[in-house]
Design a protein that fits this description.
By secondary structure, this protein is mostly helical. It contains ten helices and two strands.
Length: 254
């Protein structure tokens, strides 16, 4: 399949951000702290991060950007050819920001549900937040929280999210709704599966992994499973809305 113009430009932007992050890190310039998505109460948070984080990828794992860009090319090009460039770009950006929103809401729950346990045990909420803002913690918290609760609270506040995966999951959902009988294969499982089964199965896997706190099917680093699900949710809602209105009948070529 040929690559479409908007998809090509999105891939170029992502690659430029990845190369710049890698190159500037050698000069002690941290683009991750500037453009990745941090928890809103974290001092590193900036208002543009829900958008800019969509174009950031881990420099420690080239597979992160590689898989996302392959997916964007494969599925995004099909949607752009059907919808037109403006409609596709609007869909892509909305689902990406939607993924950031859902990820942030889940982090709010992860932080404050466990913080409330500490407050009930006699710790000060202000002290907890002040320590987290300094990137520190009170060792006595571990006497109250389980390891999973402690990790969830700290990671919700401190660990940034980055990558195009949320928007890509929105693209996947739209592709599955438009081409339900198209056969797809995972790279490491070369068995063709129709999109109407493959994509829901992928979402179920992300939901289970998110609840269980899994790092993912292939391991290696933190994976924002609920950002994936957020992008999928916004993709489904947009498709549902467009199917109910005249938007579904129009191409937006400019």
């Amino acid at each position: 399949m040929r690559i479409t113009e908007t998809v090509k430009h999105l891939i170029i932007i992502n690659v430029i951000f990845w190369i710049a992050t890698l190159a500037l890190a050698e000069r002690n310039i941290d683009l991750v702290s500037l453009f990745a998505l941090y928890f809103p109460e974290n001092p590193t948070f900036k208002f543009w991060q829900p958008v800019s984080s969509m174009f950031m990828h881990s420099v420690s794992s080239p597979m992160h950007i590689l898989f996302n860009m392959i997916g964007l090319w494969m599925f995004g090009s099909a949607l752009e050819m059907r919808w037109g460039k403006v409609k596709f770009l609007c869909f892509y950006m909305i689902t990406g920001v939607g993924a950031a929103l859902v990820h942030t809401l889940v982090n709010y729950y992860g932080l404050y549900s466990n913080m409330n346990i500490l407050v009930e045990a006699g710790f000060s909420q202000t002290e907890i937040l002040d320590l987290l803002k300094e990137g520190m913690y009170n060792p006595n918290w571990k006497n109250v929280l389980t390891d999973a609760q402690f990790n969830t609270m700290v990671e919700s506040f401190l660990v940034p999210a980055l990558g195009a995966s949320g928007a890509l999951y929105g693209v996947l959902v739209a592709f599955g709704m438009l081409y339900p009988n198209m056969e797809l294969m995972m790279l490491f499982i070369p068995i063709p599966i129709k999109a109407k089964y493959f994509i829901p199965g992928l979402l179920v896997y992300d939901f289970i992994s998110g609840i269980a706190g899994s790092t993912g099917l292939f391991g290696g680093g933190n994976i924002a499973h609920f950002a994936h699900l957020g992008g999928a949710l916004f993709g489904f809602l947009l498709m549902w809305y467009w199917n109910k209105t005249q938007f579904n009948q129009n191409r937006w070529d400019r």
